[in-house]
Every structure is written in structure tokens, then in C-alpha cells.
Amino acid sequence: MRIIDLLVSGLTLGAIYALVALGFHLVYRMTGVLDFAQGDKVIIGGLLGLTLVRQGLDTILLVALLVLIAGLLLGIAYDALVILPTQNNGHIATIAATVGIMLVFANGGHLIWGPDGKPFPPVHRGVLEIGEMRIGYQDLLIWVVVIGVAIGLALLLGRSRVGRGMVAAATDPLAAQAVGINVSRMRAIAFALAFGLAALAGVLVAPITLAGGTLGTALTLKGFTGAVLGGLASTRGVIVGAVLLGVIESELAAVIPNSYVDPIVLIALIIVLLVMPNGLFGLRRQRLA
Amino acid sequence: MARAQEGPLLELSGAVYRYGAISALKGVDLHVNRGEAVCVIGPNGAGKTTLARLAGGLYRPAGGTIRVNGEPMPRQPHEAVARGIGSVLEGRHLFVEQTVQTNLELGCYHGNVPKAVVEERLEKVMDLFPVLRKRASQETSTMSGGEQQMVAVGRALMAEPEILILDEPSMGLSPKITGEVFDALEALRKGGLSILLIEQNAPLAFELADRGYLLRQGEVVVEGNIDELTEDEVVRSAYLGA
């Protein structure tokens, strides 16, 4: 495979990781929680989309929109049923709960839809040819969505009233309450957006990765790795980290056996973190439990 | 905006608060009338900060009642500000990595206040603390303690509260900066703002307040107007160096 083709597939792989990493980033920045169910939310999104397709809905963009809305609602329920009951016991309890939910999502998906990945139709089957470079329209769509989500998040958190409230609530919940910010609502919005984003990602990546199957945990680990590599608290950082991870993986897989790729990437991550503990684009202060 | 009614603006009756098995407040009665400045003094661990947060609607009492303008304190902490309560928290609690202006603007978050009104209120706060005008675009984490305290007071004022609750506003400040902050508080008091001042520095608190309470181990042990407090043996020996 030529380097340019590897780069294209690496960028797509990185963009998929970035969609997971952005969910990690959003929840972490807004609540201080690491949500390890993020990858399996992507799988749930793909399976919900598959259900709609099987019901005869063949406009994939409409499927994506409906799954996005379902994801937003599931995020609110997720906050109420998983996060809220555990938050008073500290971040460790909440993180443990997200790991538990990761397993519930993975096994629940297998019970309802079966353990194997299933084909999922793309938005567009065509390929864009630029000189000798060939890029699938589905790949392009994923890239565009990642860029759009990043810009949207930046505008939401930096310019909108709700976004300012979310940042303030994340920075100092007591002070936020003192100025009239409903901290519980801000947290619910963060989880709704993270679930909605993951569910949307599920529909977009299913034509490439298949819908369902056992990829959720791998997506969680790769999304988290990319986010930490770039800097978990930085929007730009998590995207760069995730895309870098995808490209490196893709290029390495072409020259060494697949089983060596993950250990090499993770060792490289440890070295980066030893030199730059907050990641490549780490903010000065990161909130940790 | 809360309606003005007969009776105290803020009233705690038998307020109880516990941290697990430990009682921080054991039935505190306290009130602040309209236009009045009231101070609460007491040693470390007396329950002053807990009292400030109960009075500010940020904590829910385990027993007793808290009323604002004759009505029960809202159950949700973020709703207290809409009832005319402004809280300046101990340790300032600014939104770090945000500028002075953003911190101040967040002070009127609750009401979805029109931009023009926000601008007006910003001007008022910056007239009160002129140094903030020069620092408007500066991150609060890079400012001195005194300037941060001014931002904290200014942020609470942005909601145009009926009562300002201040928890240890002089803590960690030099006498000069403390004087500037308290001069501003005196101006606000003269302008009709009600104040509940929680303060360890009794002489400073007595300069501003009309009445006061001495809190010890979660209970009010002395109360009265400032003349009565300054004559009280317990207060004189423990807080006025007499």
C-alpha cells in the first residue's frame, strides 16, 4: 500500500479516535470524570442506526440525525442513572461506574443484536480521486464531522451563555451556584453532548468498522490514548493526539506485524508523557479527582 | 427581583447543620434587617463559614428555617441569587483562567440580563473598584489577593443583590488593601445595601456593622448592637485585646 493511501486511512482512523477522544475531553473538562463507556456508546449508536435501517429508513443522514437525538436523550438518562448516584462518593466511584456501564453496553449489545459486527450502509459509496490519491466520501464525511464538532465545541464553550456556564460550573461548582448557575443541569448537558456525539460517531464509522461487534473497548482505549497524548483538557490537543495516533498506527501496520503496533504506540505514549505530563497541548491546570 | 416585605430581609431560626456526625451549627437564630450591616465574629471552627453558606442558600439546613423576604429559602442553591442574595465566598472562589471581565459578567448569569444592563453594572463595579478597569482583560489567577477580593465582591454585586454575604473578606489581605475593600463596603452600606459580614477581625467588623453576633462551637453566645458587644466581657477579652 502506498504511503499516501496509508495516510488517508490513517487520517480516517485518527478521526474515528478523535470522535471518541472529544467525548472523553468534553466530560473530563466539564465534570472532572473519565468516562470509560465512551467507546461502547459509539457501538450503541451504530446499532441504533442499524435498527433504523432495518426498519426501512434508508436515508442515512436522517438515521444519523435520529441517532444523534437518541444519544442526547440517553446522555441525560446516563447522567441521572449512573453519574448522579455516584458523584457524592468521589470521582473514583464514578469512574468505576462508567467501567461497569462499559461492560453493560458491550454485553447488552451482544444480547440484543448478537456478538458479530454487521454491515452498515455508508452515506455515499463513491470515491473522490485527486491525482493518484483516492479518498472515500465516507472518510471525507468523518473528517468534516470531526472538524465541525471541534469548531462547534469551541463556539459552545467559548462564546455561548450555556458554554460559559458549563466552564464556570466545571471550574468551581460552589462559586457557580453562588452566581445562579444550575450545576446539575450543566453536568447533564455535558453528558448528553458526549453521548450524542458518540452515537453520531457510531453511525458514521459503522460502514468502515461494521455496526456492533467487539470494537467498543478498543475504541475506548484508543480514544483515551489519543486524548491523553494530545492533552486531555485541550480540544485542539485531543484531536491532534487522536489523529496522530491513527496515522502512526496506520503507517506502522504497513511495515511491522500488527501485534507489535499497539505495544510500540503505547511505549511511545509513555515516553511523551514522561517528557510532557499534560500531553502535547496540555493546559497549565488540569482537573483531576 | 424579590418583593420588599415587612420583617427581616434574612432570618435564620434554629438553623442546624451537620457534617456527618459532627454538628457545625446547633440551632442558630440570626436576622438581618433591610439596610442593616450585621457581623458574625468567632474563632476558627465556630461554624462561621457554614453559617455564611446556609445564609447564602448554598447549603441546606438539617433543621430550623431560613427565610428571605419572609419566604423560605429556595431548595436549589443556584436559585438563591434570584431572591436577592449575593455571596462572597471565603477564599474568593474566582473562576480561574477567566478574565476579570468574564468573572464579573458571570455574576449576572442567573437573570439572562441584557447586554446593555451588564455594561451598566460593570461600570458601577469598576467605579467602586477603579483598579479593576485596568485589569479587565487580565486572568484573575495572575492578580494579587486584594484585587481578587475586589473581583469577588464585584461579581456578587453584578447580580444587584438586596443583601451581600461576605465570608472573611479581609483574610490574607494587607491592612491597606483591607481598608480599600472595607471603604467600598461602607459606601455600599450607605447606599442601602444590607450586609452580613462573617469576619474574624472583630475591630474591623465593628467599624462596619450596626449589630453583631459572637459564634462559638456552632452556637450564638453573645448578640447585640456594636456598643453592647464592645462592652461585653467575653468579646472584649477574646477579640478586642482588653
TrEMBL record, chain A:
GO BP annotation list: amino acid transport
CDD domains: TM_PBP1_LivH_like
Membrane topology per record: Multi-pass membrane protein
NADP as UniProt keyword: no
Regions crossing the membrane: 7-28, 60-84, 91-113, 140-158, 189-212, 224-248, 260-283
InterPro entries: ABC_transp_permease, BCAA_transport_permease
Recorded superkingdom: Bacteria
Places the protein is found: Cell membrane
Name of the featured protein: Branched-chain amino acid ABC transporter permease
Source species: Actinomadura livida
From TrEMBL, chain B:
Domain of life: Bacteria
PROSITE patterns cross-referenced by the UniProt entry: ABC_TRANSPORTER_1, ABC_TRANSPORTER_2
The keyword DNA-binding is annotated on this UniProt entry: no
Residue ranges constituting the ABC transporter domain according to the UniProt record: 10-242
Keywords assigned by UniProt, alphabetized: Amino-acid transport, ATP-binding, Nucleotide-binding, Transport
GO biological process terms, semicolon-separated: L-amino acid transport
Family membership noted in the UniProt record: Belongs to the ABC transporter superfamily.
Protein name: ABC transporter ATP-binding protein
Organism: Actinomadura livida
